[in-house]
Specification:
This protein has 251 residues and is mainly alpha-helical. The chain is built from 13 helices and no strands.
């Protein structure tokens, strides 16, 4: 009885749900397709949520030089009244979000990028070792939820009216650590479910998640930025839901 309960405890909840609904188990091929789809969506979500922070930089630090350059040919400033050109230039100077809209705004944005990438690169090394010892389903799920939470907290700085640079720096530091859980986890899951046969074709199709995630994240964040009453907080927070995809397959 104890052995049977231990066996049932190891079965993922998603598998138990499928068996209870269908009355029978799926075939190995069906599980492989499901794993392929879930890991594809999972890592695409990582990239989509990661892309939003780069999109909102134009709102955090609107470059007045771009406004002063005018419109490209063939429109140019010839067909636009000078008062409107001056209005766009002044509007760009007055917008932004402190502490990123000052004279050192570019350097501060660069600092949070460096902080994110540094923690991401170091976290990849640690996550690779943890992925070999922990339950991959729980590890990947915890990484996605943690990444979504701290990405959302970065965006909540808009709604909470936070103007402290250290707040945004810490959010990016921790988000980088959680983002590092993605690649080692999905690669380990794929390696457990798929052998060497047709690995080139399989990985070629599966690796499209990077482009799909970057494109979807950019489109979503840019679309929300059009609504000034939402601001950069909504652009980042809207990508959080892409980073909360559950993973119930056995890895």
């Amino acid at each position: 009885m104890s052995r049977n309960s231990d066996t049932m405890r190891k079965i993922p909840p998603g598998i138990l749900l499928i068996r209870s609904i269908r009355g029978k188990d799926w075939s190995l091929k069906s599980y492989r397709y499901m794993v392929l789809l879930i890991t594809f969506i999972a890592y695409a979500s990582y990239h989509a949520s990661r892309k939003s922070s780069s999109i909102v930089k134009s709102v955090l630090y609107p470059d007045p030089k771009k406004a002063s350059e005018g419109n490209p040919w063939p429109v140019g400033n010839v067909f636009i009244e000078e008062e409107f050109v001056s209005f766009d230039r002044n509007r760009a100077k007055n917008k932004g979000w402190y502490p990123f809209n000052g004279t050192d705004g570019t350097s501060k944005l660069g600092e949070i990028d460096v902080a994110f990438l540094a923690c991401y690169s170091l976290g990849m090394y640690v996550a690779g070792h943890l992925g070999d010892t922990l339950d991959l389903r729980l590890f990947l799920t915890a990484g996605m939820i943690g990444s979504g939470i701290f990405l959302g907290l970065f965006g909540m700085g808009y709604f909470w009216n936070v103007h402290v640079f250290s707040f945004y720096l810490v959010m990016q530091l921790v988000a980088g650590l959680f983002q590092a859980t993605g690649w080692p986890s999905v690669m380990a899951v794929m390696g457990n479910w798929f052998g060497k046969r047709k690995r080139g074709l399989l990985m070629g199709v599966w690796n499209a998640h990077t482009s799909v995630g970057n494109i979807s994240g950019s489109l979503l964040a840019a679309a929300v930025l059009d609504y000034e009453n939402i601001g950069f907080g909504g652009a980042i927070a809207s990508s959080v839901k892409l980073d909360l995809v559950p993973n119930d397959e056995e890895g």
